[in-house]
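Aim 2 progress update. The chain analyzed this quarter is reproduced below.
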Amino acid sequence: MAFFGKPDTPAPSPAPSSSPAPPERLSPPSPIALSPGSASAATVVGSRVKIVGDLSGDEDVLVNGRLEGKIRVDRKVVVSAGAEVEGDVQAKSVIIGGRVHGQVMASERAELLPSGRVQGNVHSPRIVMAEGAQIQGRVVMPNDAATRPLSSPKTEDPSKRPPVVPSRPEVAPPKPEEPSRRPSPPGTGG
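Predicted structure tokens:
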């Protein structure tokens, strides 16, 4: 395209330099792989990214950075080492190598890697916890984690319980024999 009536001229090619161009900066691959074939259908929160807000969908989610909000997906959530989530995480499968400050609810499986830290309750029918992983909260393993509510257990009022009375074995004292009831010796007709 010509500006102000000047003909288009091709841009001059850059002069070759003695030093090669610096390579593009690529983030290192995550040590935690998502399920095969899911790379095209995955949401990745980069290591230098901070997201404030809830995240929901039907894709795998890989958190390498920081997310402040709830995560609710129908597939897998991976919180890489060095990553942090401030909020509840709900998915089919959850793998934690970083930090999660909130409830973790996995309908199929929850896995804590050695660097994984959870400050909150973990609900899942199957839980794998590597040596070095930490949970500050309860571990709940119901038969079906998806149908169980995330509520605290009801405490029973001790005043409404019946009193506990220790049971003692009852031993009857020996009965004294009455003289009139004694059998008479044989041959005495009495």
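The mean pLDDT is 76. The first strand starts at residue 42 and ends at 45. These observations will guide the mutagenesis experiments scheduled for the next reporting period.
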